[in-house]
Amino acid sequence: MIFLKKVLAIIGPTAVGKTALSIEIAKQYQGEVISGDSMQVYRGLDIGTAKIMPVERQGVPHYLIDIREIDERYSVADFVAESRQLIDQITARGGLPIIVGGTGFYLKALLYDMNLGGDQYEATESVRKKWHAYAATNGQQALWDHLNQIDPDAAEKIPVSNERRIVRALEVYEQTGQLFSKQQTTLTPRYDALVIGLNTDRARLYQRIEQRVDQMVDEGLETEARQLYDAGGQSLAAGKGIGYRELFPYFDGQITREMAIDKIKQDTRHYAKRQLTWFRHQIPVQWFDLLADPTAKDQIEDAMTDWLSK
């Protein structure tokens, strides 16, 4: 009988308590945290990514934070390779690996033995540049429309704003002749994983999102975004993140500051909704509401005890 390593994942939209819960569980179960957020890897992008600062970690080791410069590429294949190594090391120390945060496809690719599509076919630089240039000239909607004509099943699952993922799907088709949506669909679990999802009712969630954005602005989000903009953020993968890309038109004088902040709130709300929909269809998750359900902590404790005893 093969025993899979245990991995805990804590997922959910922004502002629902993932960070606080991860620290609490890590301290109780000798846990070490691996960030599952594709934007927190970039140095200098602290406020807009809600990055947990060293002083907030309470001695809990954290990994895959501040490991790339803003002009460096970071792919799902990078995340999976580095996370697998960390999981082996944490497990060997007798610790509990805890994946925290947000990028759903990254988590799925880690927890299951997936065919990573475009990442396993090393696209020539010219192919990748061609599609990014197409988006720059014609817009991301046109790029998505092109994918939708070729592979509507893939396009349905990829947001128009996710240029990198659209380009990856087009790369796979161009280089292999295979549709991105027809990549491996039967998934074999790589770990014995418990996925805890945090959520709350929509009105409360949206209110907390707006408060979180206002807090980020107060903490200096505009300055952080300006530094990214001045470094060529509009052409960088790091510049595609919510909280940054919405401010670039303001810096260009196309919209007001208030309009940019409102757009950040709107995009964050939409992203939270897409996240929840994605997780409900892609990965088995046990959902809890720490904000409204006084029994949620006990329920999570019970789920942890049951899982760890098997």
Automatic annotation (TrEMBL):
Record: residues binding ATP: G12, P13, T14, A15, V16, G17, K18, T19
Requisite cofactors: Mg(2+)
SUPFAM superfamilies cross-referenced by the UniProt entry: P-loop containing nucleoside triphosphate hydrolases
Reaction(s) catalysed (UniProt annotation): adenosine(37) in tRNA + dimethylallyl diphosphate = N(6)-dimethylallyladenosine(37) in tRNA + diphosphate
Pfam families: IPPT
Gene3D superfamilies according to UniProt: 1.10.20.140, P-loop containing nucleotide triphosphate hydrolases
Quaternary structure (record): Monomer.
Name of the protein in its database record: tRNA dimethylallyltransferase
Gene this chain is encoded by: miaA
